[in-house]
Design brief:
Helix content: under 10%
Strand content: over 45%
Radius of gyration: 22 Å
Shape: globular
Number of helices: 4
Distance between the termini: 64 Å
Number of strands: 18
Structural class: mainly beta
Order of helices and strands: HEHHEEEEEEEEHEEEEEEEEE
Largest sheet: 14 strands, antiparallel, barrel
Length: about 350
């Protein structure tokens, strides 16, 4: 049982131990939002143009004409973790718009067994309690048209709140900025995340820490560092619209997701790593949508030290009627990687249809 105490501490320690830049930090913000976007394998940096653009590229908020709202729910790891998102956006005038969104990724009802066994080795199940580990992000976005034709700019400020039961809490703050440009049927987008780096400052409950630091005799743990710094990331997108027939349209987009660290992405150097993705959307008169995409190309080391490339396919459908759009996405449909199937649902409301 004492090994469980040590495991609990290791989870907390891995989240908190940071004195400088982290290659992986605030990773819940890398999951993405909106079933429509996830069905296209997140390849929407150049084309995001509704309330969900607060997350994908705030420059796209300029495209909205009235109040818009969006909600999403996703369940991960067979329902153990829940991921929820809500967004609201509205135009200020013909040239600018604002938006707000909230993200929560959490695991609830985790058993806290740190006091299950006392110093005399007695077991008391009445000392077992429940706690939650939850990450929150609040985005405040602003976007406007620039002086050049078809060029839009957007920025969002984000506040991050992370809670691990009574063990530790954190506050963070950062900025994202994006640009979109459109010419004829071509669209281009750039999204820079954590452009000033994002700082998370942790507060550790030392009373709770004292209960678990000696869980394994002879392996006392030190109080973890409390500063976590997130490196900037850049996403580039190129998209094109195709008219297939009178009522059929095809949207295709390619994204390049760049981290300034050497990872196991498809393209990796000491300076930066690039993970490409591509997404497609076919619609019938903007009423019914069929989506597909592929991304998350990763090199995986096998037991014989050889390497293979894995990828993550995605699939999605959507229905739009009088300003209400219901979208569904199924991710990891090839069952590659370590994650299980994820069913994602989202609903988007466009109030301009209700004014007619």
């Amino acid at each position: 049982m004492k090994h469980k105490f040590f495991l609990l501490f290791l989870v907390i320690h891995s989240l908190l131990n940071a004195q400088s830049f982290r290659n992986y930090s605030n990773e819940f913000l890398s999951i993405g939002v909106d079933a429509a976007s996830l069905g296209m394998s997140k390849s929407v940096v150049a084309t995001a143009n509704n309330a969900n653009a607060i997350y994908w590229n705030p420059a796209g908020l300029v495209g909205i004409e009235d109040y818009q709202g969006s909600v999403m729910h996703a369940s991960y790891f067979a329902g153990i973790a829940n991921y929820n998102h809500a967004a609201f956006a509205m135009p200020i005038d013909k040239e600018s718009a604002i938006g707000f969104s909230i993200i929560r990724f959490g695991v609830d009802d985790i058993l806290n067994t740190t006091e299950l066994i006392d110093n005399q080795g007695n077991i008391d199940f009445n000392n077992v309690s429940l706690f939650s580990a939850a990450d929150y992000a609040f985005h405040f976005a602003y976007a406007r048209n620039l002086i050049f034709k078809d060029l839009k700019f957007g920025v969002n400020a984000k506040i991050i709140r992370r809670i691990i039961g009574e063990f530790a809490t954190s506050w963070g703050f950062g900025f994202d900025a994006g640009i979109q440009f459109e010419r004829n049927s071509w669209k281009f987008g750039v999204m820079a995340r954590d452009i000033t780096t994002t700082y998370n400052t942790w507060s550790v409950n030392e009373n709770e820490f004292e209960k678990i630091k000696n869980a394994i005799p002879g392996q006392n743990q030190e109080l973890p560092e409390t500063t976590e710094i997130t490196k900037p990331k850049i996403q580039l997108g190129i998209a094109k619209d195709w008219r297939l027939s009178r009522f059929m349209n095809l949207l295709s987009e390619v994204n390049f997701n760049i981290r300034f660290a050497e990872t196991n992405d498809l393209i990796a150097t000491n300076f930066a790593s690039i993970d490409p993705s591509i997404g497609f959307q076919i619609d019938y008169d903007k009423l019914v949508f069929l989506r597909a995409g592929v991304g998350n190309f990763q090199y995986i080391s096998e037991f014989d030290n050889s390497q293979s490339v894995t990828l993550q396919p995605n699939f999605g459908v959507g229905f739009n009627y009088r300003g209400i759009t219901v979208d569904y996405a199924l991710t990891n449909i090839g069952s590659v990687g370590n994650a299980l199937y994820s069913n994602i649902f989202s609903i988007t409301f466009d109030y301009r249809f209700f004014r007619r």
